[in-house]
Specification:
Blueprint lengths: L2 E5 L2 E3 L5 E8 L8 E6 L5 E7 L6 E3 L7 E6 L4 E6 L8 E7 L3 E2 L2 E2 L9 E5 L2
Length: about 120
């Protein structure tokens, strides 16, 4: 069974940093491109970042470019999102997903998505 479990969220001050993790199981993680998505209060799902299966090609939404970095450790079946220079508008629930479910084109939540991890940026 495919499982994606996000962690690492919390409360951060503007300008602060957080590192999100996503533990993947039930599929061949190293064979799949992966993404991060978020849902801000009262808004729809938004693609944030994605990376190819090897982790050597990365894309980020303009809203986070230069502040967030996606990475992965295929040996640990884990996806990461390093978030620096956080802004209040980054407040959202963050999800990881296969890129086939969430890309620059759009996101569609599937049954195997996890509960996400809450990130709140506030002073």
């Amino acid at each position: 069974e495919v499982q994606l479990v996000e962690s690492g969220g919390g409360l951060a001050q503007p300008g602060g940093s957080l590192r999100l993790s996503c533990a993947a199981s039930g599929f061949s993680f190293s064979s799949y491109a992966m993404s991060w998505a978020r849902r801000a209060p009262g808004k729809g799902l938004e693609w944030v970042s994605d990376t190819n299966s090897r982790g050597d090609n990365r894309n980020h939404a303009d809203s986070v470019k230069g502040r967030f970095t996606i990475s992965r450790d295929n040996a640990k079946n884990t996806l990461y999102l390093q978030m620096n220079s956080l802004k209040p508008e980054d407040t959202a629930v963050y999800y990881c997903a296969k890129r086939s479910d969430c890309s620059r084109v759009g996101c569609s939540r599937s049954k195997y998505w996890g509960q996400g991890t809450q990130v709140t940026v506030s002073s």
